[in-house]
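Notes to self after the call with IL:
- keep both proteins in one doc
- input above output, always
- annotate only the second one for now

Protein 1:
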Amino acid sequence: MKRDRIQEILEQHRKKGLTLLASGGEIQKPSSQLWNQSINEQLLEEIKRDADRFMLTPDPELTYSLFRVYGDTGERLAYERVYFERRKRLNSYVIMALQEPENVDYEVAALNMIWSVCNEFTWCLPAHFNEGSDRLDIDLFSAETGFALSEVKLLLGDRLPDLLRRRIEAEVENRLFRPFLEQGPYGWETADHNWAAVCAGSVGAAALYLIEDSHRLSQVLERVLHSLDCYLSGFGDDGACAEGYLYWQYGFGYYVYFAQMLKAATDGEINLFASNKVKEIALFQQKCFTGSSTVVNFSDSRPESGIFMGLSCCLHQEFAEVIVPDASLRAEYSADHCGRWAPAIRNLLWVKEEWMVATESKTIWPAESYYLSDVQWLLSRHASENGGNYSFAAKGGHNEEPHNHNDVGHFIIHADGQAYLADLGSGKYTAKYFGPERYSIWCNGSKGHSVPIIDGSHQQNGATFRAAVMEASTNAKMDKFALEISSTYGHSKLERLERRFLWEKGKLPRLTLTDTIWMMPNGDESDAERQVTERFITFLVPELVEEGRVILTGQRQLFINYDHQVWKPVVTARSDIDHYGVERFWYTLDFEWKAAVEVPLIANFIFQFES
């Protein structure tokens, strides 16, 4: 949308004040009356617990020594733990100051934390800070901080001293608005992933709060809207987020926060929800859960997540098809380790009791199957007669996706929210994790996924290494998914590799995996020495029950049936470092071909749940 038109709309309709933060109604005054006390009782208890715990110790400082750790070692967590704790303190102090306005201690703590955040050398993380540039960096977290402070200023209202009002206005001006308008464009402005939505959405939201001049505001919003168009271009018409669910919750969340504000500010004249693609993106949440809180965690996604109820309620208000899940699935306040203000306050403000599903079984995700053609994911949830809830998911795609893992043809199997065949998800973020050595890390390379190893070769990184979908179909009884994935290996002798999945949804579901592999002969004795390994990833201990049968025992039992005359099972205990810097333990279950290699080589494995 052109700047002149944006300015015209703003001058006709622009609203000020708390209506920009509200969803579906006017808010009269900044106090604990902002939110429904009964619905939010447990969440408020969690926030109060955090605030009270934080007040026992001084607010931690972001020292020079901490700042240097990343540049010197590539280690991110040392600085980020302190940075994010400071954001959590800001959130909990401000919310409790609003919740209990008579408690002077909360207000004092909130004001001190606002002052301290305004004093930070940079609002960026060291991993995103360019020391050699004359341009002021705007990263995800600096943009979020400006958004947060501008909203805190509004909510605290007259309780915020004039000096702190002016500090917030000056710091957001100097750290966001001026560099954005005078030193841009920034790389994220044309990104097709979460950076565009978070950075642009945050800058746009702060501008709606703080920029009075409609001409200057329209300059900001014109570029913000362009960035959000770029963000949407990263999705196909299926609405799937290839970055994984938590990046949907993050990036699309900030798209929604800004879209709702702009819609309210312009009386709906500018409505960023008014497209079918946005609707399909909104529906992604209810398609990617495998159990109550477990998700299809392809790419840099964690295996479990709570729900942002505020975001879900807002989306349900826009699109009736969006499910507002059972309140038991609400994300705990502490679940966001980054301490983001925008979702924290909206999880209080936007929830509506009448929309929150209440069930005794807590089986609130529908038993359905989806094929998402743009990302080439097949996702299936099945509720069986024996009361179990089973899920299967597999992916095609390519090996240069956002937050990419080399995982074409990879799959997972869950039952009652427990992973039997697993995806490791995201590892610990370091300089190496996002550098040239990314795919040497277990969770990123194909060696850490349930895909074949051909003559010792693993899948390669790049957009040309991709699947061709041969079949994708779903019905009430079975789902079928077939891929040709030979190009992902870059192996000169691999002519073709067909991977077929048949998911039969009976009383106890069964997955049949068939790989058909064609390899060009070398024409000498080395043909007999070729190696094919079928690898599967699991957190459960694989046990050999008998020849031709391996069992994975969790809450249920999953048997893996194979031809013992040609396959030799090898179990290896492994470990790596997870996203939070904690060592995790898991297993590779390898089946090594021990017979003469035939052309084609046909590998059959049956994964059968039994009572």
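Protein 2 (the one to annotate):
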Amino acid sequence: MNDARSSLARRGFLIATGATALTFSAACGSGATTPDAKNAAAGTPKAGGRLRAAFAGGGANETLDPHAANLFVDAARAKALFDKLADFGADLAAVPRLAERWEPNEALDTWRITLRKASFHDGNPVTAEDVLYSYRRIADPKGTFRAKASLEPIDLDASRAIDASTVEFQLKRPYAEFPNVLAAFGAYIVPKDATAFDKPIGSGPFTFVSFKPGSSLVVRRNDAYWEGAPHLDELEFVVASEESARVSALLGGQVEYAHELNPATARTHEGKGKIDIVRLAGSAMQGFVMKTDRPPFNDPRVRQAFFLITDRKELVDGALSGAGEVGNDLFGKGYQYYPAGLPQRIQDLDKARALLKEAGAEGLKVTLDTAPAATGFVEAAGIFKEQAAKAGVTVEVKVGNKDTYWKDILSSGTFASYRSGAMPIESHISQRLLTGSTTNATKWQQKDFDDLYQQAQSTRDVTQRGALYERMQRRLYDEGGFLIWGFADWIVATAPKVRGVSKAAPANTLDWARFDKIWLA
């Protein structure tokens, strides 16, 4: 049994073997039984109290529509009010939530989902019709919901409700990793026919009280929650877009939880007794994208040279203040299917120069697009500029607009700073590395690579499927366009009286922002 499957077994999920190896059920019916949830903090949970959590916000146009979630604060608020069919565990394997069980047919192109007994805040049960309505709303061509791309493999016209608690999804093609779709960012279940979310009704652990866009959301404990009522009486999400404001509010007692601190700030306050620092390892991939469809990076020798120019430890120490670990030019370190046996790449300037000379790229000059759009971006660009100069490469750092950066670099430029949050390796490949991927920032378009991915999704046996993923990743390691130099910790801070905060869940996974599991000592 591989590590990911062992992890599922430890969480209490039944793992069948042989012909039904992709059948999962929640034996205990509760994600609260995960080791992380039980061991996040010592002591007996205490009921009651109000916790205030500070997040960066999205301004006066904020919405509580869970399908429109884009920011971390959107995801945290949606998690408080709504549920998905599945979510990602700490190892980025899908674990059941509203789905109690999933089972594919032999061809892996039909999946039957059995729902657990759960109710919306108005007392109505969560049914198969609610699931189909939610997914069809997300996939509506007239909409712009983020989970739309994740739901693309589903033929929603052909999918149907077998009965009130059973959904049968017909897929457009075999998809062995279909549970990743159920756990996709933003794929929340809402009541059928819901269109307005000014006073949202979900099935989550908290119920709506009040909302001021760009300012505050107040929610209250849902005593009827299927997984058990939260410990807190109330939870308030407070918007504080500047990190300094979040930290000041925490130090001043105006909030008890501050999301997203930079490494330097965390180091300043860690161990001083006034606030507690929680580091969520492996939360964010850090690197650069080289566009493989245009000069100079359409020559794989140039890409290989840039891999060898990079001093990864210097980048982690300098750009992340040491709050992370070095990367190896592949996404998902520590996740299911990650090829940990590949040699760790180290700086080799002599070999880099030889490759550039062989490619006719001596004296190369490139522009590196960056922006203060994520922690360490501008700093990493400056460090890499100095590293590249040692190999005879001139890097011009161009600092752009942080608000439009991600859109700007998707198709324009040749070389750019890049970051990604946690997601399964399969999702990273399907969303960013296939010819038709909508966020293919490296412009990696290789038919044989696409074919390997499709072969993996038609392969029921997890070991054989893992071997196909390894072949794909070895190819990327040798000649891909992602230069992945590190994996950053995600950092949150709390008041000393806060208990139950996960210390092992990457951002955007099940146990991240689990305010229903937090209590005040």
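Annotation: Confidence is low (pLDDT under 50) at residues 1-21, 26-41. Residues 339 and 366 are 31 Å apart (CA to CA).
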